[in-house]
Amino acid sequence: MKDVNSATQEQRNRPRFTLGRLPKRLQETFTRQKPAAQRLDPLGVDRIYRGDARALLPRIAPESVALSVWSPPYFVGKSYESHLSFEDWQSMLQDVIAEHFEIIKPGGFLVINIADILCFKDPSMPKVSAEAVDRRRSSITRGDVLRAMREHPEANRYQIAALLSCSEQTVDRRLNGNNIRGGKYDTQTRVKIVGGLVEQWALDAGFYPYDRRVWVKDAAWENSRWSTLSYRAVDEFEYLYFFWKPGITTVNRARLAPDEWKQWGARGVWEFPSVRVNDDHEAKFPPELPLRVIRLLSDPKETVLDCFMGSGTTALAALQTGRHFIGIELEEKSVRLAQASIARFQQNLF
User: What is the value of pTM for the model shown?
Assistant: First the structure.
């Protein structure tokens, strides 16, 4: 492990952010002249805007947002992201992060909540990867099949199956490792670590990694049991990556009660349940997630941004804590859902 003092010295020696450090494409992002319509029609606070974040973020006033906290599409096959290829997904997130640098206040934060790995189909990955012996319905082993084939070299797979009193599929699975019915025809699912991608996109934009929190949530469920059919772990935690824009940062522990600071403000692991019922939106995060980030990293009356607003959870958390919000959401039905939730909250409040 690297010595803390040497790491600190290395950070001091690190060159400050300049446009010259960015790729040409991102230099153009920061230096291009905003269209007149964007300059004359900035996004106001306490509203949700429907549209692509890449188009609407440039309309937010420069250095007006104290905190941006959001959870992007995870590229796991949800309906709202089905139109994206993996390359499209990467390009979208990279552009969205880049557009944040101008609008975040110096010393402010960009916080991204995302799973630590991506899972997607990879045609290049070998299809034979596991043999779940404890789930077999037949006691026939690979050795039994090979022995029968040696004793009856002229027999085909169906005849071998008849000799062993099992199905042809069992013979095929023992020979080729296809342990799930139909699995031999499916493209394998692989994982890719996401943290390095997000970190690099933030660095390219001018932000610096500041911290990360681990949100321990409910594990994946199968038949009311925590379960996995392979050695891959059940899905029970996500990351919150904190990125800092260079500038003076207000550190005020009085934002939290003393017991809150001890229990989660200064702790790297946050544990609270996920949303149990996604009956109106398929990817909601619990209110506790944006509430903690907002209370920890911003002050009342400051502006909080969520450019993947979804059902409006971040907006409600901002209102509950006396902050302003700006929401951006691509899906029209989600915009209506968020607006209705905010209207109910305001009606109950007043």
Answer: 0.72
